[in-house]
Amino acid sequence: MASLLVALGIVYGDIGTSPLYVMKTILSTNGGYASTDLVLGGVSLVFWTLTLQTTIKYVMLTLKADNNGEGGIFSLYTLVRKRAKWLMIPAVIGRAALLADGMITPPVTVTTSIEGLRLIFPLSTKMIIIIVICILIFLFSFQKFGTTKIGKLFGPIMFIWFSMLAIFGVVNIMNYHQIIKAINPYYAINLLITSPKSTYILGAVFLCTTGAEALYSDLGHCGRKNIYYTWFFVKTCLVLNYLGQGAWLISRKGELISENPFFLIMPQWFIIPGVIIATLAAIIASQALITGSFTLISEAIKLNLFPRLQVRYPNDEKGQIYIPAINYSLGIGCILLVLYFKKSENMEAAYGLAITVTMLMTTILLSQYERYNKKRPIISIFVLVVFGCIEISFLYSNLFKFFRGGYITLLIGLIIIFIMYIWIHGVTIKKKYVQFSKISDHLDKFKAIEKDTTVPYTLLIQYI
């Protein structure tokens, strides 16, 4: 039971807090006005995105592609790199994009939740920025103690969070139980075909699955079985909450919804504790990407694809690592992004573009893994075609975010790729000038040193 709580605290923070902003973002594509087609189609798209992308691709397929218990795109690359040299390209691009997205995840989740305090207190934008920066400083300062201690602290909070999602979802579903029909994929397809803003809607829907890649990256921190057992509970709670928000919005179709529907579905007396729990969950949401970033960098160093950095092991738990340089870099980057974007709506405009690139690169590597390692060519084609098409569609829809802030994450990704390219190129040059020879060919020199009495033996040992 304790290990399951640790998994809840570490793995699901990012994807678990998506109800905070997904329906709000979908609603914004229609100017804040709720309509039956938009709500039913939006909830349907969210359900099937979670099912196809997260459940089938990551939980059922990708989690099995572990490298001695470790997950992440570099673990996947390690398993297939002997098949073709070109596979290094999607691995490097995917890893850089994931780290870039990991830098914007903490600011957007924490800022969104803190802005919910405006329902209670008249907070200015400047005050919100100060609160968010203080929270981020605390979060990154806590990393050195290891993810086991963090998971034990965060796990119970996330259990309360998911339980809250499910409870308020069910309460609102009971008020408008017809929302259950949104599970029918017809409403998703109909919205995409009939809506003139289907591209923007798809970009908003994608936010519900942005934490799936972090789920795979955190495999080594929690273990596959713990993720398997907890995902059913997590997905059920998420779906119930999305359905509950949809039911509340349909009952107010035609009205202008100016506030976040996530908080509006709560009874008035629960808004204060609801905002507090949401704020704590948003803090925890940052953890999944942070721990995943540590894993990615550690694997890149082992593969000689990234400069050598100090890697610490905070405790005896397998897979628990801490990289100070990466922790400081992510922390400073997150604070600068908060100061630059200021509001969550500006961050949401930039959020998701980089992670679609990562998911597409993972699909390419996963298809090769299924083809060569698992000897399942049909599954390989299925992965490449089905998930490739889905992710290309999401990538196209997210490209419209480029000039609204998406260029920031892509720029960060390009900087990381440049660092990796310089390191890889330098290693290649170094190998050209390194020569290896057998020790047996130099035995005469060792014997000459042994017979040399002019050099004290203790000094020779110290020099060696």
SSE arrangement:
Layout: H1 2-10, H2 13-16, H3 22-28, H4 36-61, H5 73-80, H6 88-115, H7 125-141, H8 147-175, H9 185-194, H10 198-205, H11 212-217, H12 219-222, H13 224-250, H14 261-264, H15 271-302, H16 324-341, H17 344-350, H18 353-373, H19 377-398, H20 406-432, H21 443-451, H22 457-463
Helix pairs in contact: 1-8, 1-13, 3-10, 4-9, 4-13, 5-6, 5-18, 6-7, 6-15, 6-16, 6-17, 6-18, 6-20, 7-16, 8-13, 8-15, 9-10, 10-19, 18-19
Folded structure, characterized:
This protein is mostly helical. The protein contains 22 helices and no strands. It starts with a helix and ends with a helix.
Give a quick precis of the structure.
This protein has 464 residues and is mainly alpha-helical. The chain is built from 22 helices and no strands.
Rough outline: globular
- Tell me what portion of residues adopts beta-strand conformation: under 5%
Task: Kindly report the average pLDDT value.
Answer: 83
What is the β-strand count?
Answer: 0
Helix content: over 70%
Q: What are the low-pLDDT stretches, counting only 5+ consecutive residues below 50?
A: none
Main pleated-sheet profile: none
